[in-house]
Design brief:
The protein is an alpha+beta fold. The protein folds into two domains: 233 residues, Ribosomal Protein S5, domain 2 (2-Layer Sandwich), CATH 3.30.230.10; 194 residues, GHMP kinase, C-terminal domain (Alpha-Beta Plaits, 2-Layer Sandwich), CATH 3.30.70. Helices cover 43% and strands 18% of the residues. The strands form three sheets. The chain has a six-stranded mixed β-sheet with strand order 5-4-6-3-1-13, sandwiched between helices. The protein has a four-stranded antiparallel β-sheet with strand order 10-11-9-12. Strand 7 and strand 8 form a beta hairpin. Helix 3 crosses helix 6, helix 10 runs antiparallel to helix 11 and helix 11 runs antiparallel to helix 12. Bound molecules: alpha-D-galactopyranose. Alpha-D-galactopyranose binds next to helix 7. Belongs to the GHMP kinase family. GalK subfamily. Keywords: ATP-binding, Kinase, Nucleotide-binding, Transferase.
């Protein structure tokens, strides 16, 4: 069987990547980097498009991620460059008066994720003095990533989280008290939670993207070997062992090669449909429409209630009632799938003999819902799912925001060579990443 290594994106050897980045930093800025920080990308078992409805999400960190080498400045400026060929346009300088929600230029640029994070850390420092950013603090940064950009694996959150750790280390009392790698041990769970929340503020308030916090939580709070069961009602996390799924199986992310970054408008549109449905039902957060341990029948009850309330209406705040109903059905069924997985992985479903096929069935049902109800899938993703199932995968689904991005596949190692050959026939742009649940953001 012919199978090429070229289709795999390797996570690389962190020490090699770091030492290469540090020497490139020296060439670029003519001075030494003070340190390097890393944050991972993420894949989700379930829980798409429900973080902003307070649903449960099940992310895990990849070993692929984003590395930031940095050194401080005292003139308040940021100078930034990325080594990613698709984004690199040389060194970008951000002046202090260009940092913050009002000050950020309208035209989209990757540097806004980084300058947004510096603004958000300053804001956090107002209530937590240990995070207060020094007066006049700025930095030179060089960025490299082993994640496909726009691949639906949260390259943006990885950039935010690696950058916020760099700023924390170089520009705050917390960093002065805990130099370099000491930072990792010093960061408490609460600290990580607050830093993730600051990254969310950067993305929502500065970049203007409608993130619900799933990605930043995964990057900042993931645990090796675990899937995080993230309850978005209060952002509490329960790390769950994933070993029971992976015994005899592998999870792989198939990057379709179709980047999703141009579709922010559609993402917001889908979210707005579901929010309109929530308002009609009288809920601020859709999760509250279901009981603590929801089942399929609960979804039917809510949909009946929706139909009753919508009966006399032509539109829902100008939106199509059918479309809002489909978004509602996606959100509710996705919530039920998440709860089911949570209980399965918590060991409560003791006696489920074929756990991989149960999980696989949930993955595939999630894809159908993304395709038919959320309507965020696209041809290549549907074809990848079909192909994976035809090659014997237990399950497969589109992950992330959709309109481009990656498909998660649960499959036996023995079936992977045939799958890679079949996938190469779909598109030359397809790449595979091994999903081995890894560590959260850290100083290297
Ligand atoms: C994007 C957003 C997340 C989440 C996912 C879909 O990645 O940033 O908050 O909504 O899409 O699950």
């Amino acid at each position: 069987m012919r199978t090429t290594d070229a289709v795999w994106i390797a996570p690389g050897e962190p020490q090699e990547i770091q030492s290469d980045l540090v020497s490139r930093f020296q060439q670029e800025y003519g001075r030494a980097a003070s340190g390097t920080w890393f944050a991972p990308g993420r894949a989700n078992l379930n829980g798409e498009h429900i973080d902003f409805h307070a649903g449960r999400c099940l992310p895990m960190a990849l070993s692929h991620g984003t590395y930031v080498a940095a050194a401080p400045r005292t003139d308040g400026r940021l100078r930034l460059r990325t080594l990613d060929a698709s984004l690199d346009d040389g060194v970008t300088t951000v002046n202090p008066d260009q940092i913050g929600p009002e000050a950020t230029p309208e035209e989209a640029h990757w540097s806004h994720y980084v300058s947004g994070v510096l603004w958000a850390l300053r804001e956090l420092g107002r209530s937590q003095p240990t995070f207060a950013v020094d007066e006049g603090f700025g930095a030179d940064l060089l960025v490299v990533s082993t994640l496909p950009i726009g691949g639906g694996l949260s390259s943006s959150a990885a950039l935010e989280c690696a950058s916020i750790l760099a700023f924390l280390a170089l520009g705050t009392p917390f960093g002065q008290d805990n130099p370099l790698q000491d930072l990792n041990a010093a960061l408490t769970r609460e600290n990580r939670r607050d830093l993730a929340a600051a990254c969310v503020r950067a993305e929502v308030e500065v970049v203007g993207a409608g993130t619900g916090g799933l990605d930043q939580t995964a990057a900042m709070r993931a645990r090796p070997g675990k899937v995080l069961s993230l309850d978005c009602r209060d952002f509490s996390v329960t790390p769950l062992d994933i070993g029971c799924i992976l015994r005899g199986y592998r999870l792989i992310a198939v990057d379709t090669g179709e980047a999703h970054r141009l579709a922010d408008g559609q993402f917001g549109d889908r979210r707005a449909d579901a929010e309109a449905a929530a308002r009609l039902l009288g809920f601020d957060r859709l999760r509250d429409a279901l009981p603590e341990r929801p089942r399929k029948a609960d979804v039917s009850h809510v949909l009946e209630e929706f139909d009753r309330l919508a009966e006399q209406l032509e539109t829902l705040q100008g939106r199509s009632i059918d479309a809002c109903r489909r978004r509602l059905r996606h959100a509710l069924t996705e919530m039920v799938r998440s709860e089911k997985l949570h209980h399965l992985l918590s060991g409560e479903a003791y006696g489920v003999r074929h756990i991989a096929s149960t999980v696989g069935g949930i993955l595939t049902a999630g894809h159908m819902s993304m395709r038919d109800d959320a309507e965020v899938s696209f041809d290549v993703a549907d074809l990848v799912v079909e192909t994976a199932l035809a090659q014997g995968a237990e399950g497969a689904r589109l992950i992330g925001g959709g309109f481009g991005g990656s498909v998660l596949v649960l499959i036996t190692p023995a079936a992977i060579p045939k799958l890679t050959v079949a996938l190469e026939r779909i598109s030359r742009g397809i790449r595979l990443l091994d999903v081995a649940p890894s560590s959260a953001a850290q100083a290297l």
